[in-house]
Amino acid sequence: MIPALMPTYNRANLAFERGEGARLWTDDGRRFLDFGAGIATSSIGHANPHLTKAIADQAGRVMHVSNLYRIPEAEKLAARHVAASFADSVFFGNSGAEANEGMIKAVRKYHAETGHPERYEILCFEGAFHGRTLGTLAATGNEKYLAGFGPPLEGFQHLPFDNMNALRSAISGKTAGIMIEPVQGEGGVRPCPDRFLQDIRAVCDEYGLLMALDEVQSGMGRTGKLWAYEWAGIEPDVMSAAKGIAGGFPLGAVLAKEKVAQYLKPGTHGSTYGGNPLACAAGNAVLDVVLAPGFLDGVARVSAHLWRGLEGLVTKHPSVVEGVRGRGLLCGLKLTPAVSNGDMQAAAVAEGLLTVAAGMNVLRLAPPLIITEADADEAVELLDRACRRMTPSNAKVAAK
Q1: How do residues 269-292 score in pLDDT, each as one tens digit?
Q2: What is the DSSP string of 138-183?
Q3: Residue 229 DSSP label
Q4: Of 268, 290, 312, at which residue does a domain stop?
Q5: Contact predicate 241/255, CB 8 Å
Q6: Distance (Å, whole) CA 28 – CA 89
Q7: For a Cys-Cys bond, which of 10, 107, 256, 295 suits 261, CB 3.0-4.6 Å?
């Protein structure tokens, strides 16, 4: 018999009753160091006092009114994001997939309104992950995710990653924009070289295309800067964000320059829950923490410390780990063909560490941004133990 909760996930047999900082406790009392953070979402840790107070205070006043009325909390949050980014205007939704849908619509709408409705095609990249809606599945282009849902939405072309010749060859009179993640999270924690982002910005300017960045996973301080595009010294025309921007409360956003945002007029896009008072109270509380003096410098410092430890695992366990990839606190261990990321993830759980599997046989690490160097050292020690479980001579024993 099918369970009451629809079985769309392969859930681990773990149920957490409380958390604090970078740690979670199960309902049977086991403690885990959380280096998954709800897939890069619990950005300022579990039970953060400032965030929980902001949510509780706002819930005691008003949680939801709909976008039929002004929402001062959303106006404040939008203004703060504008001040801290390339954007001139922000639309709030509920999730990363919804933010990417809005971004896709914004790219198409821009060209329709500027006299080129034939320009609707968006160039995307192999290994991308943009969401689970029909539109974002088409942008993702992964056959495994598309199977069984009928013909994919037209208007997307998928190109080799970090290949400028292929990109230039794909541009046509139908091309509207180029959509890319600065760090592919689900696709294998694969960072986009700064040079490639710079080349994309240049080709967009050359051909009148829009540069659309998916920063759902890489944004909100995760790489050591507020937004990952800052490392390349460029600015997109439109960008999606979600996950960490409200510390675990559902919130997504489309950030855009005025030349794009001006065409999303009343009636062109909307969301019932998006940007409601409670979500934006959470978003403002997260910004309070992330934009505080020294916070992002701390993320960069701790991530460098973590990477040194992870690179030590490559040397120590060459039969298990091939390398380290990613940027900042969105990083991954590329495992050898002899070790599956699912088995490695289970070995880490057995040692008390939560991680997230990613594509290309990578074990993803995306801890809360508030971790300390001591937390990083503990994670490396637990991964060291997990690697020992997974060495070819020990793997069969560990599996029993």
Answers
A1: 999 999 999 999 999 999 999 999
A2: HHH--HHHHTTS-SPPSSEEEE-TT-HHHHHHH--TTEEEEEE-SE
A3: G
A4: 290
A5: yes
A6: 46
A7: 256
